[in-house]
Design brief:
The chain is built from ten helices and eight strands. A four-stranded mixed sheet has the order 1-2-3-8, with helices on one face. Strands 5-4-6-7 form a four-stranded parallel sheet, sandwiched between helices. It is elongated and about 55 Å long. The termini are far apart. The relative contact order is 0.13.
Length: 236
């Protein structure tokens, strides 16, 4: 078996280039990671079978016709439903009840970023939280924006999921620690990569963070687009 791999680091131009390269190799199957990569692969071919992973909303993104009947040449696994994004606001308030402002780090250029931000923006007022959007496209801009945001007290961070979240992971974790901002992430690995002992000094409720994130992690699983009569539901 021959395997060809490409990593575009969230760059749209490189993603498009690599999609064309892979299709030109005439593979038997293409595995696409994330919404942006899947979108480019479907632009490049409608005949080669594509299996996608880590895609929040394959129907809304137009990758499949429905979860029960994907149709076309693509099928795969959902990462989570957009409604899960509301849980990040709840977790942020649980670990830091004094938070009244949240900086949402997102990628407005992809459907997943738009969907996650829309949910967060809609539920934030019910938790008494004002939101500010920070674009994940540029590392220098992330640093400037987080530094400016941190000048006013009672703030916290919410990092949405996406390729750029992974690209800038270490920077965002270091900024949260530097400015002592409580933060919620989409994976426990992000918390593990940070200085947890420092977070304990910042917030005495750190055990709540571990318990809450462990609970959320155990409930969220990649869900296949399956040919079933009844779509699985997710409730909290």
């Amino acid at each position: 078996m021959r395997i060809e791999a490409r990593w575009s680091a969230g760059d749209p131009a490189i993603t498009r280039k690599y999609a064309a390269e892979l299709v030109a190799l005439a593979p038997d199957l293409i595995l696409a990671t994330g919404g942006a990569g899947t979108a480019e692969m479907l632009q490049a071919t409608r005949s080669v079978p594509i299996v996608f992973v880590i895609v929040p909303d394959p129907v809304g993104s137009g990758f499949v016709e429905s979860l029960a009947q994907p149709g076309g040449n693509a099928t795969g696994f959902m990462q989570f439903e957009y409604t899960l994004s509301a849980k990040w606001v709840e977790l942020l308030k649980e670990i830091a009840p004094g938070v009244t402002r949240a900086a949402i780090l997102w990628d407005p250029a992809v459907a997943a970023g738009i969907g996650q931000f829309a949910v967060i923006q809609s539920v934030a007022p019910s938790f008494g939280v004002d939101v500010r959007a920070i674009n994940l496209r540029d590392a220098a801009e992330i640093e400037r924006s987080v530094a400016a945001f941190a000048r006013t007290p009672s703030g916290g961070l919410i990092l949405t999921t996406g390729a750029l979240s992974a690209v800038h992971r270490d920077l965002i974790i270091s900024l949260a620690a530097r400015f002592k901002l409580p933060a919620t992430y989409q994976e426990r690995s992000y918390v593990a990569a940070g200085d947890w002992s420092r977070m304990e000094r910042i917030m005495s409720t750190s055990t709540v963070v571990q318990r809450a994130m462990s609970t959320a992690s155990s409930r969220v699983r990649s869900r296949p687009t399956c040919r079933c009569r009844r779509q699985p539901s997710m409730s909290w």
